[in-house]
Amino acid sequence: MKQLIAVSPILFESTNFEPGDELPTHNAGLVDIWTGNGAAVWRDTEEPKKRGTKARQTTAPAGLPGDAYPSAGPEQDLVGKPPSRKTRGAQPEPAKGRRKSSA
Length: 103
What we know:
The radius of gyration is 32 Å and the shape is elongated. By secondary structure, the protein is an alpha+beta fold. The protein is built from two helices and six strands. The strands form three sheets. A two-stranded antiparallel sheet has the order 1-4.
């Protein structure tokens, strides 16, 4: 079903219609004037099916390409970005919890 939607503010029969509001269509002369000068448009009320979107990375990883010393291996030389924990052989951090008292 089509609806007449206001594009700009319209005062009609002591009612102020804001952009996006549905306009009354009982006065055919005003409907033609509103659509003719661009103050209102006809829109179909049926909503199309929405498709889900998938996220994807759009930027390069942080750091600048170049020679890093010491080298972490092929394709991992990014200046200003530390290599992964596994690559550099870092030990996992101990769990941070309260120690129980042995009393």
